Amino acid sequence: MGNAQWVAIAQVGKIALQLISMATLARLLNAQQYGVMAMATVVTNFALLMRDLGTGAAVVQSRNLSDKLLDSVFWLNLSMGAAVALVLWVGAIPISHLFGSTELPPVLWALAVIFPITASATTHQALLERRSQFKSIAQIELAALTLGVAFAIAAAAAGWGVFSLVVQAIVNAVVSTLFLWKKSLWRPGRNGSLSELKGLVGFSGNLSLFQFINYFSRNADGMIIGRFLGATVLGFYSVAYRLMLFPIQSLTSVASRALYPIMSQQQTRIADMASLYLRTIALIATITAPLMAGLFSVREAFVTTAFGSGWDQVAAILMWLAPTGFLQSIMSSTGAIFMARGRTDLMMRVGVVTAITQLSAFFVGAQYDVLVLASLYLAANVFNFIPVMVVTLRQLDSSLVDLAKALAAPVGSALIMAAAVRAVVWVCAREDVSPLQTLIVACPLGAVVYVAVLTLVFRRSLSDLRALLRRPR
Fold first, then answer.
1. Are 318 and 247 in contact (CB under 8 A)?
2. Domain edges within the chain
3. Which segments of the chain have a pLDDT < 50?
């Protein structure tokens, strides 16, 4: 199997495990505990940026890679990981005052141990990705997540509360790091030098700036909700956001991790890169369009069945986050293009514009309630979609017309499917059918409608999609 297939297998497995974890832990934990972990995640996501500084992606993209450079990257990452852990230890209490949560400091102290551990394997993973050893990476990620989920469920059942989620993160980090060291043949030496890192500054510097900007764009909602609306509301929002994020993480990972090394090798062959990217976009849309449309259509029945009573607000938030998830699944794939073309400077500028739009939406929405915030988040993504895709496609000498051809069949079919499924859900609600029975009827029907419309109504677009997918890799 090829790179994309192995990454896809890993992501499908990860989605299944995460859904099992969420469905189980939602019955053992409450929204307030999820909210505390969401606050901690906002902080740790920022710390992750400081740990890596874009050096992993630079190792994958670099044409001239020496042992001395690898040693330099390794020791830089390890030093930054240790420094981040120290800052978290010292700053945990001031950070907790910012969020207004007395439960946050011990969570941050426990999570701090993750950073030096994972930093020690950043170079090893980058080398595996550079060599396209995605089978090994897929196996490592699935093993680490499986053990993490098992430990989290056991801890939650034992009454550990929010620390069951902390245990999951730590176990995941330790297991993945150990296996990455075992699978990678490279071992660090003592020949590191700051002068060796100069060649990576332009690429990784702009990439790091983009990642910082993207961090605030992606995590500002958690910071603002936690500060102004409280931990419980943030708990509901974080569960809905994770459901929306699964397809983005899985399919963007396929696009970025499996295709980025190939695109980096095709930097001078723009036509090949364009063909590869449009095939990827078509495949992403073929999966995320029906997933997000289906989640939108059965959101009430799905939340009640998966998480039990007391989580109704998650369904209301999903009404806005589901379409947001589809738009982000397309936009999130653009990073591979900017990095492969060496245009991290342009990626950084695009990130500034999208961050300003989304931050504005979050600040305005927080003055009302979480549903207004979620609706404005969708509006910001709609506003950003066209300019982001125009700038990206220009790097490939392509246009919005090419994008429309790639998206027409899956998006059109998903919209028709959503209308049919929503009608069934409405009838089931009137007839007082249980949420589980509603899902049993609606989900297979949605799949049949989607495939039928894709095959019959959009036959020409589907033929174009098949032709696109059959082009040589």
1. no
2. 1-192, 207-473
3. 468-469, 471-473
